[in-house]
Prior knowledge:
Shape: globular
Bound molecules: ADP-ribosyl-L-arginine, magnesium ion
Amino acid sequence: MESKFIGCLLGVALGDSLGARREGALSILDKPNNFKDVISLNYTDDTAMTIGLAESLIEKNGLDPEHLARRFLENYEKEPWRGYGPGPPTIFFSWKRGASWQDELDKKIYPGGSFGNGSAMRVAPIGLFYCDSPEQLRQAAYLSSRLTHSHPLAMEGAALLAYAVALALKEDQDFLDKLMAFVEQDIYKLKINKIKYFLSRKDNRREIVRELGHGIEAFNSVPTAIFCFLANPTFEEAILYAISLGGDTDTIAAMCGAIAGARYGLEGLPEKWLQRIENRNYLTQLGQRLYEAYLRSK
Ligand code: F2R
Ligand code: MG
Ligand code: MG
């Protein structure tokens, strides 16, 4: 289990940093790039916010939204150049000026709140910490999302990704059926059915992108990341495949990396990539500390 906690956090960082090299690419590759020429792997906001969430869960022994909001702000101020989405920094500045985490400030930026994938991309630590209780996991994922992404489709995307991490951690054999029973929003149910259809057709990349999406919206990226994990037999193949789909590649590969890292553990992550990942030691320690916090919470 400890190896899987570590593998999940490092999996986010590997997917994010490899994917960041193609983020926004509209083209779909016919076959995955093997990244042989890459010397160092630097991660973006996806990993920076995952770190913030893991740190807060460890320090507070569970989800404390006020503490989490403070940590997101502190980490952003240390590293504002991580390539954050447009909405969150505006919200961080409002918190700094005294606004509350409960204010759902994203509703002032987007009608009905943000349905960007920014809350799903960082949610993996909740999938690990609350892996024994789907309902606690759902409530924690919703609450963590509400700070910056209060639209129901973002909250649901975060819960779905967290639950996928929990099921992968446990090597659950009824993965898709359990995801289907868990989700409440129709668009996610529709896309989970499409995942089933495409599992035997993974080379139809254009059709997969058309039907599942590869965009910045939670509903156009969370199901795609789950598909990339299920359609490939190893961590490496899943990440390269995710990146080959183009679009929001850092985030789709980060979310796929979270699930695949939880499934295969640290041993399943390619050493050739681990050697080049930024902050490898800190991410490893964070996985260990999150595992200890999880044990204490039981
Ligand atoms: N920001 C980026 N990539 C840009 C390139 C960065 C560059 N490399 C650099 O160096 O700076 N990536 C990161 O942003 C995504 C996560 O974004 P998040 O946190 O969800 O942001 P936001 O602003 O809440 O939403 C993102 C977009 O979604 C659309 N949207 C959201 N809600 C909407 C609504 N209600 N109606 C219409 N559209 C809505 C908007 O287009 C938002 O701008 C990740 O990819 C991460 O890697
Ligand atoms: Mg990013
Ligand atoms: Mg992205």
